[in-house]
Amino acid sequence: MASGAQAVEDPIVKQLQEYTTCDVADALVKLKISHGGFLPGITMWSPQRQDGTTKMIGPAYTVQYAPKEDERPKWPSHYIDSVPRGAVVFVTSTPKSSNALYGGLMSTRAKASEAAGSVIDGRFRDLQEQKDLGYPVFARDVGTTPPGPLFKVVGVNEPVTVDNDGQDVVIRPEDYLIGDVNGVVVLPRELAEQALPLMKKQVEADSQMAAAIAGGMGFAEASKKFRS
């Protein structure tokens, strides 16, 4: 479980705690979402680097950075002060930059607001501070330089887009973001109730397959028997 408080009042969040990001992706593929909601290149950095049982689940709270010369006005307040309890902060920029979009003070405030975690579609900084907080952070990479010299926040809680090897993955406010050691996936809110029974069925079938394979059954035979 993530160290931040989860939105336990949301029954979807509560049910998703039983599943991995792979389970979510499998269900979305069955619902004809070919990329499975996967956000490529984004991995766990805190509280541990690609290790442990941390699971981050919550509705997305999106933040869009753009170059300072962008015609859109700078967001009038700091986005981190409006993060809802149980939300997952998702920060992105267009275009990408070597400057970090997010730092330790952001996580300090987010944790105090009982956010579930943060996902940075770019670089973040203050890695040791993030780990010391025990706060879940998923990102593409680390950096040292703040965004201020080049970027400004131009949108909060608006749809944002992440490229998945040529396939656009759109993240809208309140879509579910799920992160664990496998990576991060986005589950569209309107598909959640359809996806959950598919996850349950898949996990049950895979558990039976694993037991059969461990007992000597071939993969193809076990797949035909339990997944058909």
Automatic annotation (TrEMBL):
List the keywords (alphabetical). Magnesium, Metal-binding
CDD domains, per the entry:
RraA_family
Q: Which PANTHER family match?
A: 4-HYDROXY-4-METHYL-2-OXOGLUTARATE ALDOLASE, 4-HYDROXY-4-METHYL-2-OXOGLUTARATE ALDOLASE 3-RELATED
UniProt source species:
Dichotomopilus funicola
Q: What is this protein called?
A: Ribonuclease E inhibitor RraA/Dimethylmenaquinone methyltransferase
Needs which cofactor? Mg(2+)
Q: Which residues bind substrate?
A: 103-106, 125
> Which domain of life does the UniProt lineage start with?
Eukaryota
